[in-house]
Structure formats: C-alpha cells, structure tokens
Specification:
Repressor_TetR_C, Arc Repressor Mutant, subunit A, about 65% helix, transcription
Length: about 190
C-alpha cells in the first residue's frame, strides 16, 4: 500500500532523529514498549516505515538506544544549587520525575541498554562530586550508587510495590524516595 501524502505534509517538520525519538517516546508512554513497531512509528510520523531507516540505519535497535539516550542521559544542572549535595538532590528528584514520566523506557535502563548514555550521566555526577571535594575514587562510587538508587527506586515505584512489604499498606513513594536519597547523600564524605 502506497501512502498518499496528506495535505498537511508540507506543513510537517522534516523527518529527523529528534522527531523520530519524540514520536517513539509518545507511543511508548501511551501504549507501552511492546507496542512500539517501526510500522506504528511510521504511521505516527505519517511516513513509510522505511523512511525511518534513512535516519536510523540499525532500525529498532538504534531506536531503542536513542530512547534510552533521550530519557536517561540527563546531565546534572548545578545552577542555583547551594553546594554539591543540593545539586545532586535536585538532579535526583528531576531524574526520578523524568523516569516516571517515561516509565515505558525504564526496562531498557534496568537491562543496561545503551551503557554510554548512563556513563555520560554518571560522569556528570562524578564531576559535581569532584568539585565538591570528593576524591575521584569516592566520586565514582558515589555517582554509581546515586544513579543506581534513583533507577532502582523508580523501577520499584513503577511496579507499585516494594519488596517484602505487602502487609505494610500503601507506600508514600515521595517520602520513601526522600528518605533513601538522604541516606545515600549523607553517606558521601569529602576527602
């Protein structure tokens, strides 16, 4: 079946990797990762699925890597932060919100897809720690621990339950996240 160009085709922005990733993210957010196909993505973009391969020659593998990079590679922003702990606290809260907003991509992070995106995030966190006076070895461990905490907590939150706590009743995920974050950040000691 040959798709007829729509009247709005001339008003659409040109196909780009960014536009493809945004459309894929919209599908994953609304329908789940399992519903993301190149055909469905082409329909959402109003192009033939093969047109996507011009921008993503490795196809769905490259698309999934791009989703992880888009969602997971959020560098820490130190503007307005009162010290390294405050900067990392702000990043953690923001990162958790980003992961919750795009929870369909979370399984890709947990399984280690696109480790370069996570490495870039860890490097950003390490830099904040180093500037805060944390030696390199401690900064590397603390950055890895913080990233693991935020991703792990969010994965449990998305599942809607914490391990071995069924009898406890409803969980206040915000309070639990803040308490755990305080434990992680307070355990980091400068030189």
């Amino acid at each position: 079946m040959v798709r007829q160009p729509s009247i709005n085709a001339q008003n659409r922005p040109p196909l780009s990797i960014e536009r493809i990733i945004e459309a894929a993210l919209h599908i994953v957010d609304g329908q789940g990762l399992g519903r993301l196909t190149m055909r469905r993505l082409g329909d959402a973009l109003e192009v033939e699925a093969m047109a996507i391969y011009h921008h993503l020659p490795r196809g769905k593998e490259q698309l999934l890597d791009g989703l992880v990079a888009h969602v997971a590679a959020a560098p820490a922003d130190e503007r307005g932060a009162a010290g390294w702990r405050d900067a990392l606290r702000r990043w953690s809260v923001s990162y958790r919100e980003r992961l919750l907003a795009h929870a369909g991509v979370l399984p890709l992070l947990v399984t280690g897809r696109n480790p370069a995106a996570l490495a870039a995030t860890t490097a950003s966190l390490r830099e904040i720690l180093r500037r805060g006076g944390i030696p390199e070895a401690g900064a590397a461990v603390a950055a890895h621990t913080l990233l693991g905490y935020v991703i792990g907590h969010t994965a449990l939150e998305v599942r809607g339950r914490a391990p071995a706590e069924a009898a406890e009743g409803p969980v206040d995920w915000d309070a639990r996240f803040t308490a755990g974050l305080n434990l992680v950040l307070n355990a980091v000691n400068p030189g």
